[in-house]
Amino acid sequence: MPEAKLKLIYEGKAKYVYALNDELLLMVFKDDVTAFDGKVKATVIGKGILAARLTAFFFRLLEEQGIRTHFIDYDGCRGIVVKRANIIPLEVIVRNYAYGSLFRRMPSYKLLQKLDPPLTEFHYKDDVLGDPLVLEEDILRTGILSREELEYIKQLSLKINSILLEFFESRNLRFVDMKLEFGKVRSGEIVLCDEISGDTFRVLDPSGEHLDKEVFRRTKDPGLLLKAYLKLAQIVGVDVNDINIPCRGYYY
Ligand code: ADP
Ligand code: MG
Question: Which end of the chain has the least Cβ crowding within 10 Å, N or C?
């Protein structure tokens, strides 16, 4: 654990979350990778910094394009300062190509069939239940979101997707799908939260190789995952030269 002085408020599979004050949190990215809802686990030295750098990069890119997010600051190491939010208990998945769990509920798709316009899914955020797909009606009737909020999140997710799609396509990568989380900040505004990294999206290089967590799901090999994440970071354009140096950020 990086810092005893800060109050740890949550330890997840990929990050520690510390309270900096009433309004700000520090997310510290671990060198851990898990798959199959935490059943398979490994340590990959350097993964935490790479995931934090990618997340900072993409949140800045999105902010520049007018997307409201929880991002405040990146400490250059594994720590990202964010606005504290009440996380909406949904995972929004946007798919540009048919892949993965989509086939379990709908085998009639062709593998990597283009989904245009992109397909948006809502899943209830619950590892024990395996993050099940839910209907929009379920979300409205349980009061998780109002109709306006649901529409807003759908439109925002599609806008985020189109920004990232353009970004990856201009770098010759196929942007398959991604998972987003949203939260409500103190003002009541809904903003994009959590992370954007190879743990939360799937991208394929021109030869069809995964540059995302799929490498670990398939091989369970931390070394191969690190190799894929280094290649992804290089293509995105974030610094990868110092990832083995034990670093201390500003905040810990
Ligand atoms: P998990 O194992 O639950 O996926 P992570 O290791 O990803 O957890 O830790 C990050 C946790 O912090 C997640 O539960 C995520 O929903 C939550 N989170 C992300 N951004 C914020 C935020 N701005 N405010 C409060 N919680 C957040
Ligand atoms: Mg998570």
Answer: N
